Amino acid sequence: MAIRNILTYPNPLLHRVSEPIQQFDIELAHLAQDMVETMKHANGIGLAAPQIGILKRLIVVQVPDEEGHLGPLYTVCNPVVTQTEGEAKIEEGCLSVPGLGVEVDRAFEIILEGQNLDGSAFRMEADGLLSICFQHEIDHLDGKLLVNYVSSVKRELYRKEVIKKVQLEQKDEKVQL
Ligand SMILES: [Zn+2]
């Protein structure tokens, strides 16, 4: 098991569409374990495989309840939202888009279907934060990031900010040499 590097915008892999999982083997189980470790290490509540550079339709999600206690851990292969009900919107953040908070129109309640790590059928109802988190992670599998939900002006500002930050970090590294 290992903590993997989380890719950040504007890494082009984050904009690619991930492939369906067809082989439910030990390698897949190891990938899921690494994703859980990586998510926890980064204090995230969800992570999609493309965020660590693996273009497979696999997500892990574990959200806290209202008192801050961690709920169940969900690992879902090939997740699909098959029914939606109501609307929800919160300011979402993303480990791959640091520093950007975006309100996205989501469904409040969903039925999520997919497969477990052994290939068996997975189906559940989710609402609130958990539902939003699933929808956010599925976006990653379709190459969609929070930056896709903001105006082109805001996106350009953010892009410039990111480039500036990277340049500053590189400068810092030079000073330390
Ligand atoms: Zn994200």
Please characterize this protein's 3D structure.
By secondary structure, this protein is α+β, with helices and mostly antiparallel strands. It has one domain (12-149): Peptide deformylase (Peptide Deformylase, Alpha-Beta Complex). It has helices at 26-41, 128-141, 152-176, and strands at residues 46-48, 58-61, 74-85, 91-92, 102-103, 109-115, 121-127. It is globular. The two termini are 32 Å apart. The structure holds zinc ion. Residues 94-96, 136, 140 line the site of zinc ion.
Main sheet characteristics? 5 strands, antiparallel
User: How many distinct folded domains?
Assistant: 1
Class per helix and strand makeup? alpha+beta
Count helical runs: 3
Total number of strands: 7
Oligomer: single chain
- Text of the CATH class: Alpha Beta
CATH topology: Peptide Deformylase
Mean pLDDT score, rounded? 94
Please provide a brief summary of the model.
The protein contains 3 helices and 7 strands, in the order H-E-E-E-E-E-E-E-H-H.
Summary keywords:
single chain; 177 residues; alpha+beta; Peptide Deformylase; 5-stranded antiparallel beta sheet; two-stranded antiparallel sheet; 7 strands; globular; binds zinc ion
Topology:
Elements lengths: L25 H16 L4 E3 L9 E4 L12 E12 L5 E2 L9 E2 L5 E7 L5 E7 H14 L10 H25 L1
Antiparallel strand pairs: 1-2, 2-3, 3-6, 4-5, 6-7
The structure holds zinc ion.
